[in-house]
Structure formats: C-alpha cells, structure tokens
Amino acid sequence: MRSVADQLPPLKLRAWRGFLEAHSWITRELERELREERGLPLSWYDVLVQLSEAGGDMRMHRLASSLLLSRSATTRFVERLERAGLLLRDGATDDRRGTVVRLTAQGRDTLRGAAGVHLRGVKRHFGDIISNEDAEFLVRLMARLVPATEA
User: Cα separation of 93 and 109, whole Å?
Assistant: First the structure.
C-alpha cells in the first residue's frame, strides 16, 4: 500500500488543509455575524439567496440538489423555513407530483436585511484580504475543481 505522501505531496496536503480551515473559519464567522445581527442561520440565508437568484421559486428536487441534502432532509429543512414565514410550498403546475418552493414577502424582506450583513462579512473576511490577482487565480482554480456540469 502506498503512503499518503506518495499519493499527495506535503505541499498539496497543506494546501488542502488550508483550504478546509479557511472555509471553516470564514463560514463560522459569517454564521456568527448573521445570527447576532439578524437572528438568521447561514443555511437559511443560503436558501433565501438561491430562491431569489432563481427568480423567487424553485422545484424542491432542485433545491435539495443545490443544498446537497437528501429529499427528506430538504423537506424537513423547508418546513422550518415555512413555519418561520420565509417561504411556502406549492404544487407544481406542470406536474402534480412536484413541489415548488417560493419566497414569501417576509422571506424577501429577511433576505434584504441579511444581505448587507453577509456581504459586509464576505468583504471583511475574504475580499479585503485577497488581491485582485489572487481573486483571478481563485476563479480559475475553482473552475477547474468544480466539474463544468456542476458549475
């Protein structure tokens, strides 16, 4: 059996660990800021953003795929946001078996209020730290890491 060092050189292993640690730290900070200032979990904010970017609604199976959750986990997750008044579920008009998740007016207002907090945090914890050259490199690198069908 080959050693880990044979499979992944130390420099690349350090890069991987650094990527994971940076993502974890920034995500925790963004979560903390959203909760403190808006009482909103980062995962809820993510759903509101995805629905907004999709024009205000999205089929449940597409939302589940974008959240990387199982269908049952997505259903439970969506139920919590629905109880909070941020979204609602409707039957799909073109497929009686399908479900569409829609932003409510309260969900839009919540997103608008949280967006400034979130973007300020992204700027402070990421954007202010990297140069434009770093950003260009990261864009190219991330495009190689994420298969074209996922992007």
Answer: 26
Largest CA distance in the chain: 58
Tell me how far apart the alpha carbons of residues 44 and 77 are, in angstroms, rounded to a whole number. Answer: 9
- Cβ contact 45:52 at 8 Å: no
Q: Enter the DSSP assignment of 93.
A: S
For 45, residues 6+ apart whose C-beta sits below 8 A from its C-beta are 34, 111, 114, 118
Which of 104, 106, 126, 120 is CA-nearest to residue 37?
120
With beta carbons less than 8 A apart as the criterion, state whether 89 and 60 touch.
Answer: yes
pLDDT digits (tens, 9 = 90+) for 36-51: 999 999 999 999 999 9
- Report the b/e string of 19-53 with b at 16+ CB within 10 A: eeeeeeebeebbbebbeeebebebebbebbebbbe
Model confidence over 108-121: pLDDT tens digits? 999 999 999 999 99
Two structure tokens written together for 12: 């690349």
Is this model's pTM higher than 0.70 or not? yes
